[in-house]
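Need the bound structure for iron/sulfur cluster, inputs here:
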Amino acid sequence: MKPSLFNQTPDELSAVLSDLGEPSYRGEQILDWLWRKRTSSIDEMSNLPARLRDQLKASFSLQSLSPTRAQGSSDSTRKFLFRLHDGRYVETVLIPASPALFGERSDRRTLCVSSQVGCAFGCKFCASGLDGFTRNLSADEIAGQVLLAEELSKEKVNNIVFMGMGEPLANMTQLLRALDLITAPWGLGIGARHITVSTSGLVPQIRKLADHPQQIRLAISLHGASDEVRSQIMPINQRWPVSKLFEVLKYWATRKAQKITLEYILIDGLNADASQAHLLARRAQSLNAKVNLIPYNTVEGLLWKRPSEDACSAFRDVLTEYGVPATLRLEKGHDIDAACGQLRLKEEESAKGLQA
Ligand code: SF4
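Answer from helper R.:
Posting the output first, comments after.
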């Protein structure tokens, strides 16, 4: 498989062109074809000499991923299943103008992207880990989800959340490169403040990202306010317990302007009682963080239940008493920020079925 031209930074492109004896302005022309004109063929790059187009074709490809199927209408959440060059699949979800995403009303479109095929972290509420980890996505496969979603939906994506399949901080090298492709003025040009990286809590990587100059947002899959509860849901808590996690989150808060979001799936009989609510409220208060409460959605094969609406509201009210901004969505179906990968498993099976 040839590397994708979409994975080249301007410096890398300059080096390639210099080796070929081409002037450096060709790099700007190529980037313009890729990211502005969104060309799907090197042959279309009509202002490049034919010789250079042939040389580029010999060394690079353009296609990182291809659409397989889309679900949903233009005024609802749309789910895309994309096929990678090696026959694997990733899911990307386009969320239309959102009534209350992360506690803020918004008329902007948000794309939930995947960062890995499968996941090694095995969070108990999540289907992504059921098949285990397969591989990291490359930066162009990550940014390519945005390009394809915009092409298929004919809409501009304004916000990006790394909440699809995979743990983005376990794919740090490609994540950082993807952030460059996504934010660069010559790339997708989406501001860092419109990008949220969601993690299960990889402490050293959170510190590294905190020191990264871009002002990206951070969301933490918390789901338990004490070690005893969180460890039952998030195996990573054995490695990085709540105290270590909050230590690094306090460091993050000194480095970035935006509030951290704590994601918390409410599960009946496990983490939705008053003592967890008070502990979560104190922890969120200490970080000046906001909390996104997500009533658990039933996953086939898992035994947990969602609490009653009254219990969910009571949990939210405790946070509000402490002055912690908290959102609670009681309607069903909006499972994307909680249960990454659920849909992919079902659709991958059915896509395989369709192809068979
Ligand atoms: S929640 Fe995220 S880190 Fe946890 S298993 Fe799912 S994809 Fe992996």
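Comments: The first helix runs from residue 10 to 19. DSSP finds twelve helices and twelve strands in the chain.
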